[in-house]
Amino acid sequence: MWRWSDRAHEEASTNGVEAWVYALRGEYKMWRELRREDFSGYDLIILNMNPAALGHYKRLLDDGAGRRAKVVGLYEGDLSLLHERWRTWGEVADRCDMVIAINRHGIGLLGELTSTPVRYIGIPYPVDGVRAYHVPVEERRREVFLCAFLLARPLDYLAARPLNIPMYGYEDTFSRRPRELARHRTFDKLRYVRRAADLYGDPALTVLPKTNLVAFFERASQSLLWMNLDTRYTWGRYVIDAAALGIPVVSTRETGHAPDLFPDLTVETPYDIDGATRIARRLLEDDAFYMHVAERAAAGLDWYRPEATAARLLDALHA
To answer: CA-based angle 160:158:142, to the nearest 5?
Structure first.
């Protein structure tokens, strides 16, 4: 467990579920640490309803005696991963006071799984903290950052390759935690960099090992363009990152955010490779268009600020 003040130095770059800890000045517990008495000790509990935690949550919530806390369910991952445990997910959600849909396209699905109200509220995003990594356009590299982990999907690469400019991306997540060592069976962090480099076999593509958020922002902020043909219905963080950094990103409707922040750069399907390439090429050739889409996205970020997101949550709970 940790309090927001324990990691105050990370507030300026943290987004995702942990960002709620900073927005609400609260505490973070791993799901395994949550106990029945917490539901009488806290005013508000936000549950990250990933499939692994559902059984634990259900056991705790089945006994509602002495419960004082408002309970909000939130699912951070890919909606398609709910298919195997949708029944249990709905049972846990039924015991919550509200469910947050972090992607607007998930409202209908989640609403069918539970009788609890589902709201599209978002996740607090550290707009000003990420903007601190902004690099002036004239100082950016004429290159494209491929947002997807390279061992996860090739779509970003396929759309960027015809641009004939340098590309780079990260291979996958990797750490030396015991569970990761057991999965990968190696201490060699570069093993997957080599695997990705061999898979693509393109000298124009630089493969980097996954890194921390600060190092990521320092590197990715230098690129002229991002490509993010996301196939999942998740938080869509890269779209908001790009908007905060003032970098145009070609993306998909699946992210939920792209139609709001980058409507001119959004393709209808992540498999529209030609369409994504055409948009990217226009960005490289039309300076006025480039600045227009970047400025429009930056102007739309106030909705994602931590204080605004926290206010929406509290208003919805007390409505």
So the answer is: 15
